Amino acid sequence: MDTNTLATNSKNFINFINHLLTFNKQMELLYAQKPEEKDKPFRFNISSRVIIKLCELVKPILQGEPNVLRMEAPTYVFGDIHGQFSDMIHFLEMTGLPPTNKFLFMGDYVDRGNNSIEVCALLFAMKIMFPESVQILRGNHECPEVNGLYGLLTECEGRFGAEGKMVFNKINEVLCVLPLCAIINEKIFCVHGGISPHLKTIDDIHRLNRFGKIPDSGLLCDLLWSDPCNTGNMWGENSRGISCTYNSEAINSFLKNNKLQLICRAHQMISEGYKFFTSNKLITVFSAPNYCGNCGNDGAVLKITDNLVCSFIIIKPTNVKIK
């Protein structure tokens, strides 16, 4: 498949997706033939024209979706990916693909890892081809003020040269229109960060203008930045220096007010890949094993069956640096 061109018919999109899914096999083949290349990031030769075309096609699809998506199980739920495309492919090899299976991605697709471009390309292409089976939420890194500092801009400039900033801007035009939350079977509330003192009912989210940059405070900020915390205060100061923390009382109040059973979120690196909080009323899912190449954590994807039974697919870290 020539990744320098991408026509808009279904066959070419399927071929493009299938080509991206060969990433690990091609990487292993290259490293077997040229072991000296292992010290360099493996990347596909995807042209700026292809990325821009994907952005132009997927943006109106996402822009037309509501702030809060309504989904039905069964589905697979991904946490942070952070440019770790090889791990994303490993997970998809275990889950299966759309449209046979449904997916919810909960944000932080870019930065930190070496392959933000591949992650965006696959997510955008799958959304274009299977818009009902692939749902993509916004995370705190889906904002140029953040991903301009933590990896995406540098990757774009390194891969696309003089066109790098243009590609960066086009990708962010898409990332800045992503929906904010999803509710599965009217029972499971899915969001990147968490809840907020400004959030009483789901209607509060519907009223937000989600398009554009993430503000430094308020409901939109909290949905993407807040964290659970075991404290006596419902709402606390967040050590990240932005947004807030929320405790068990805040979680239980939100769930009760909105007739929900569980909050599912991402946003935090978890050693086991997932972690329950507040008597299983909240779960954090993190899908980037061995985060940043040295954290040694597991990565997880949540599987939710049609009767809302939750289980996990785990990837153990590889190539962990021994301290």
Secondary structure topology:
Blueprint lengths: L9 H11 L2 H11 L14 H16 L4 E4 L3 E4 L6 H11 L7 E3 L10 H14 L4 E3 L7 H4 L4 H9 L3 H12 L5 E4 L3 E4 L10 H5 L12 H7 L1 E2 L6 E3 L6 E3 L1 H10 L4 E4 L8 E4 L4 E4 L13 E6 L5 E6 L8
Parallel strand pairs: 1-5, 2-3, 3-4, 6-10, 7-9, 10-12
Antiparallel strand pairs: 2-13, 5-6, 8-9, 11-12, 13-14
Q: How would you classify the helix and strand content by structural class?
A: alpha/beta
Rg from Cα: 19 Å
**Inertia-based shape:** globular
The name of the CATH architecture is 4-Layer Sandwich
Describe this structure in words.
The chain is α/β, with parallel strands linked by helices and 323 residues long. The chain has a single domain (54-315), classed as Purple Acid Phosphatase, chain A, domain 2. Helix content is 34%, strand content 17%. It contains 11 helices and 14 strands. The protein has helices at residues 10-20, 23-33, 48-63, 85-95, 116-129, 144-147, 152-160, 164-175, 202-206, 219-225, 248-257; strands spanning 68-71, 75-78, 103-105, 134-136, 181-184, 188-191, 227-228, 235-237, 244-246, 262-265, 274-277, 282-285, 299-304, 310-315. The strands form 3 sheets. It has a 6-stranded mixed beta sheet with strand order 1-5-6-10-12-11. A 5-stranded mixed beta sheet has the order 4-3-2-13-14, with helices on one face. The chain starts with 9 loop residues before the first helix and ends in an 8-residue tail after the last strand. The mean pLDDT is 95.
